[in-house]
Write a structure and sequence with these properties.
314 residues; mainly alpha
Length: 314
């Protein structure tokens, strides 16, 4: 056998062992992607809220002479470098997902493209993170870093739904028929949730917890934009309550009912955290909880809108 024929045969042996259907491993990797993207939001918040934003003062190395943090950098270096390491873990999950989907790349193009999007975003996030450090935590760049994470949470949520066959053109779950108003309302809720998160980034950039004592602020009126930020939050709450009204009125069961209840629960929790932190001097722990809540909100809103989109209409 010629050496030229060996690589194709090796590749053939590898691909022959990969799944030809969406199995438990693919589903678990999808869930792991969603969990990982959410955890990344939390660790990113920890970096800023512990003033560790410049724990690694340069990029791509942690220092001018070291790729990793050094003992002299203390806890701030550990926190910042730990956040950077999580990016590599997410990259490994995304690569594994693409490998396991290789035999399904044509049949399940939706899954393959979502997984590819998650993988492609990782170097983009790394570059934005590097610019964040090199601009000494410019609040607008920090905000962009957070918003990209929110978009990745949404992509990971869609990946989970498609992997479990809940939505998409190849869905296997039977979805309950919904009233005609459900789809546009849930779509609006998802979009307005995105607006609320964007305004939350502006509020954060105007307030404390800059990530470093010398980091700049955006110079906007924090109190004013806090009130502006509340407007889409009220609209999201109203949309979630309307979804609950439809569920109760039409006695809707199944995934959509669960999605609406999750959306309403996260929305109420976010409101409680938001009001509590506003009236208690914006403690760092509550700000971190609010960031986690933002990720959960985007996931819950995307899930409800996705299910409404693929449910039959009464």
């Amino acid at each position: 056998m010629s050496t030229a024929s060996r690589p194709p045969r090796v590749a053939s042996r590898i691909t022959s062992r990969l799944p030809v259907t969406v199995d438990k491993t693919v589903k678990r990797l999808a869930v792991l992607s969603l969990i990982g993207q959410t955890v990344l939001v939390v660790t990113g918040g920890a970096v800023r809220l512990t003033a560790s934003g410049l724990g690694c003062p340069t990029w791509p190395r942690c220092t001018d002479v070291s790729l990793v943090n050094t003992p002299e950098m203390g806890i701030h270096g550990i926190i910042e470098f730990g956040n950077r390491l999580l990016t590599f873990a997410l990259a490994a999950v995304a690569v594994m997902m693409l490998v396991y989907l290789w035999n399904l790349r044509k049949e399940r193009r939706d899954l393959f493209l979502l997984a590819l999007g998650l993988l492609a975003s990782i170097p983009a996030q790394a570059v934005i993170g590097g610019i964040t450090v090199l601009t000494r935590l410019n609040p607008w760049v920090v905000g962009l870093h957070f918003l990209v994470s929110m978009a990745l949470v949404v992509l990971a949520t869609l990946l989970v739904n498609r992997a479990y066959g809940r939505t998409g053109n190849t869905r296997v779950s039977e979805l309950t028929a919904l009233p005609g108003a459900a789809r546009p309302v849930m779509t609006a809720v998802a979009l307005i949730s995105g607006v609320a998160v964007c305004l939350g980034v502006v509020v954060t950039g105007a307030g404390p917890h800059a990530g470093d004592a010398d980091a700049p602020r955006n110079g906007l009126d924090w109190d004013l934009f806090s009130h502006i930020h509340a407007v889409p939050a009220y609209l999201v709450t109203a949309g979630a309550l309307f979804g609950l009204f439809l569920v109760l009125r039409d006695r809707i069961s199944g995934p959509f009912r669960t999605a609406v209840l999750m959306l309403l629960g996260v929305t109420v929790l976010q409101a409680v955290i938001g009001f509590t932190q506003y009236y208690n001097g914006i403690p760092a722990l509550l700000v971190g909880a609010h960031m986690l809540g933002a990720a959960l909100l985007m996931s819950a809103a995307a899930n409800a809108a996705d299910l409404a989109r693929y449910s039959p209409v009464k």
